[in-house]
Amino acid sequence: MFALGPLSFGAPLALAGLVALPLLWLLLRATPPAPKRAIFPPLRLLLGAPDDAETPQHAPWWLILFRLLIAALVIIALARPVWTPPNVEEETRPALIVMDTGWASAAAWPDMRQEAERLIDAADRGGRAVALVTTAPTGQAAPALRLGNADDARRQLESAEPQAWPANRGATADRIADARSSGSLDGQMAVTWLSDGVDSRDAGELSRALSSLGDLTVIEPDSGRAPLGLAAPQPAADGLTVSVMRAGRDFPRTVAVTALGNDGRAIARSDISFAAGEGVASTDISLPLDLRNRIVSLRLDGTASAASVRLLGDQWQRPRVGLITLESDEGQPLLSDLHYVRSALGPHAQLIDGDLDALLAENVSVLVMTDSARSDDERIADFINEGGVLIRFAGPRLAAQGDALLPVILREGGRLFGGSLNWDEPQRIAAFPDTSPFAGLPADSTATIDRQVLAQPGSATPDRVWARLEDGTPLVTAERRARGWIVLFHVTASPDWSDLPLSGLFPRMLQRLMGLSQGGNATVPGNGAWVLDRALDAEGQLVAAPISARPVPAANFDTTAASPVAPAGLYRLGSAASALNVIGPDTRMDPLPRDLPGASFAGLDGPRARHFDAALLAAALIMLTLDVLIALGLAGRLPMRLGGAAAAMVLALGLTPLASPPAQAQDVAPAPERAALSEEMMQAALTLRFGYVTTGDATIDNRSRAGLTGLSQEIFRRSAMEPEPPLAVNVNTDELIFFPMLYWPVTRDAGPLSDQASSRVAAYLAAGGLIIFDTQDADIAMLRAGTPHPGLVNVLDSIDVPALSQIPGDHVLTRAFYLLQEFPGRYSGAPVWVEANPDGASRDGTSGVIIGSHDWATAWARGESGGAAAPIEGGDRQRELAIRFGVNIAMYALTGNYKADQVHVPDILERLGQ
């Protein structure tokens, strides 16, 4: 690399072309051979005429200089000039670059890599030696740490990548100290630490080791690119509580967390908002137990790292419930109170019978205690304080005297039908309050209560009462104790006091209470070892286990941290499955302290080298266009007035992209362009373009545009179709007929269409158009409430859509281009709907609508670098299937049912006698 102060050239040999400029000057001045003389008698009449005409022998000098300038710009551009701020060029010492490559660096890795490239280039321009060292172990022996040339550092940077476990800064400090003592790192250096911005116990140790080599500059990402981490979810009364940690705390930030099932479908989604200065934020996700048990992972949207995914093992899905039994219960099991509990919880939990000692040894997450098994053992209180759930049932002993393991204070004697404090008639259960975990369950009118224990007035506060009788007395009360819960049914678990255990409501109430447990935290067997089944990579995707992984002894699994030999992921021990995550119970995400020894701090947005090759080539192209216009004007083939106007127009158009920032792939068309959009749509009639319906939400519209852009590029690459970039469509004002296919994202708050929009859509469908309605929620509304998507209902009610059915296995969409039997997008597993009887329509047997919830646009979208714009649960395989389905849709929209018509070819040939 050749440098002239702050100006350097990536390909300096191209500057040799400047030597040819004098030769080019002579070439441009060259004139054609002189004309031959011939005698023509009539010309003698002109001998006396004055000679006032002047014929130049070469181009004007200013035009030659103009053309030489064009040549010089092209030559300099080919030399790849780079302008670096002078303050970067003042360094003369060798450079040492330290990069954090733990899981926390994944969020800002592109920026950290770009900064490392800049530092290496700066050292190369100054002829300085450079060394690059990473802080996270890779499972292989670390290379020798020594100063070398810039090319060696670049090769090392190309192989560096974030890991799915924490950085080991202490080991890096030891490597640097060893290299210093061996002479590999000798003398003073310019040290730069490209940090992930997260504090650790060994950060100070690394800072001291680096500052001993010379001036230390710590560069860390800003808050928008700071890492995020998902903590272990906590069960709540009506679902679960999800907490997210962050290191950068300067500004407010909002992130979305999605709960995913085993099939990749989104079960729930919620936003989490950080206030300025806040490091931990939480949100409550309301889910019934049956859906909560289906969750296998949590994922932060819009960020890709091993800490942005939280894997859940078997313990979370199926709680371990201990039933405290007595020897007297074994004689008549069908008459025992626990018989009804077993019948209610058997299909939904792992039930373990035994005395208190045996159950606590099994480390259950829920204890069920009936009146006959009443105990005041202090170990039960410790069990509750550590996160356990105690479910109690009343009886004669509890009515006679209460104890400390109760959520309310009880009155002695109880209340029964026909006795003191009696009822005129048995009581029924009232509707459950909204704050209760039983909210939404229908109160069974057939379940009557004959007797109950009563709470002392004032102790049964509304927050402790989860169920009441019609007269307002509590039926179920609960209290949070430390990390656990105490829940009391004021009746027996058998039909002695009520009909509740005989009703269908009883098992549903107990199932809801299972949601309070933390999954059991089953005791890891004392022998055997957990074997890694699938590992989390640095981007949070499940991949095959790396070769560095080793089995983890069962006794040590709970205390094992993610590392190269024990990567985060899903582990198996026999038929059991458990998850090891990057964020452990003791993990903290504090920002790097500003008092690190010998360190000065900077951000990734510091001085940047500027590349001018593209700008110089663009300027040369504009000047070359002007040269053509000038030449035409001098030759008399273009009026000078018209030529000047044309030159000014070309110059203005050429300078516009240089002065304005480059358009991003997902930018929304600005408002001034909307006025000319109808004319652009008229031009769309001459080309192949897809359209997307705008929703008013810039995030969703950007996603739709990026998705259709990515799909158009894939269609261009894989087929003979050549789609142009997609266009935004407003169904209220724009003509739809020009688009063979429309992508319509439907939000939950979408309202009914106006009469004008309804008529436009109806005319579009009648003319053979195809609309893809995508709710982009993986049927969360259907899963949670059992009701259709409200926004989709409003939109479809405004359109005359015939009966729908799921795509059958022999539908044309399954073989329009690729052979498919599943149609995933960002999510998978939910049904995809088409017209049930397309033969009855006027569209030649094709469906005019495709309705799904898979968020196909996100799966199709490509980023600026050409890679995937967002991660999806199924990884590259699912993204490929989504693209294939998009190609099938495009073929279906353009060719209809031609694939289905092929089944008639044998009959046609038979009729023709062939």
TrEMBL record:
Signal peptide: none annotated. It holds the Pfam family DUF4159. InterPro entries: Aerotolerance_reg_N, Class_I_gatase-like, Double_TM_dom, DUF4159. The chain crosses the membrane at residues 6-28, 61-83, 614-635, 642-660. Keywords: Membrane, Transmembrane, Transmembrane helix. Residues 7-81 form the Aerotolerance regulator N-terminal domain. Residues 689-894 form the DUF4159 domain. Coiled coil: none annotated. This is Conserved hypothetical membrane protein.
